[in-house]
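Explain this one:

_____
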Amino acid sequence: MLQIRNLSMVHTKDLKPLIEDFSFVLNPGDKAVIIGEEGNGKSTLLKWIFDPEMTEGYAECSGERIMTNERLAYLPQELSEEEKEKSVYDFFSECGSFWEQTPKTLNRLAAQLSVGADLLYSDQRMGSLSGGEKIKIQLLRLLLEEPTALLLDEPSNDIDLKTLRWLERFTLDFPGIVLYISHDEVLIERTANVVIHIERLRRNTISRCTVMYMPFAEYVSMRRANFRNQEMLAFNQRRQQKIREEKFRRIYEKVARDQNNTSRQDPHGGRLLKKKMHAVKSLQHRYEREQEERVEVPDLEEPMYIRFDQNRAGIPSGKTVLDLTVERLLSPDGTRELAANVRLFIRGNEKICITGDNGTGKSTLIRIIAEYLLQREDIRAMYMPQDYSDLIDEQKTPMEFLSTVGDKEEQTRIRSYLGSMKYTAEEMDHRISELSGGQKAKLILLKLSMSDANVLILDEPTRNLSPLSGPVVRQALRGFPGAIISVSHDRKFMAEVCDTLYELTGEGLTKRSP
């Protein structure tokens, strides 16, 4: 059993409450997903549960962790810079359980994750692995420790479809507790039986945490229905209240007028009117008591908002956006051939997605595409890399990153846009390095929407977005009036945004059904 009692978290820098007096219990077999908008404290919560010292300097926390014979294992969202410099073999060597396993066990676990067993003994730097390979290697090392509770921060990031399906099966079959954060809505829908929802309400001034022991889709449906019902009841009560107030006002004014017009020589009529006024005031007190008990209009954290200007010029239907041939696609260090005879032709406002197994060179290919298209003068292309630091100077603030001319009008407009993306006023002036991965993704997407680009080159655009932000971004990208060339493993993104899917293998690109 894993129990959290009366947990409160306050952001050290802004003094904003992330979590207030929150308690919940997880038992073996529970698969709990933590959801919420970016920057709401999901990763901070996961870190504190694993080791409260990990949140020092970022948040002031108080509360109680109760673990009954649980062995926790934690998968971070990102490798540290120190770990990136280690070889894969050194990364495993630091785990005492690695030396206790037989070659047969290591081979079996590696096969489950579609990792070659020889990679475990490789001198290759952890930082040079593909995004999916990094996740697989970290998961494999966690499994060697035989944990009873897994705390996973975005385990679905950067893993291919084959490994995503494995992760679904593994999560469901794991006998212990799995507490995780993920952007992959399909994974959440198929695995979570507990939902922990962190919200920030009333312009980010208060926190609300909800725990529901039910599947994610059921929770979303119930939450939407409850909100509509409560909202309807609240509005009906307010409408009835206005009708009563108007009726009361007319009665009160009539009785008061009659009292003023009653002659002093008619004491009997005066007494009757006095009684009537007493009854009217009793009615007023009853209405006031009913008003105190009325249903409030429900608070609901609104999702982020983003859209692309539908009036911007797209690509003419007959115009060639890309006609690319790569005879040999090599790894970034030039030592390995990843694919041969890669051919890609795109015309007009086509929206395409490239998928494939980890390590096949998808990010390498889209980087080549970006380098070519960004130089073109007959189109206006913009690129969202998988590694945000390739595009963002993290020492800048969001305001500085988005600003081009720096005048007061632009600053006001940028603050409005950032507010629509769920940034607080304080976060707008934080260094970007202090923001979450999802907030950085939103920042780049906002820059794309503010530009006049008619071609977007996107490497895993939804990889760090919450399941609440994902639908909004997919809708915006689907409505983008230009061409989109993307790499993604997000199944909902592929289904809702892309017209054509390509799979990258060693033999090149193959068109496949959406």
User: Anything to note?
Assistant: The mean pLDDT is 85. The first helix runs from residue 42 to 50.
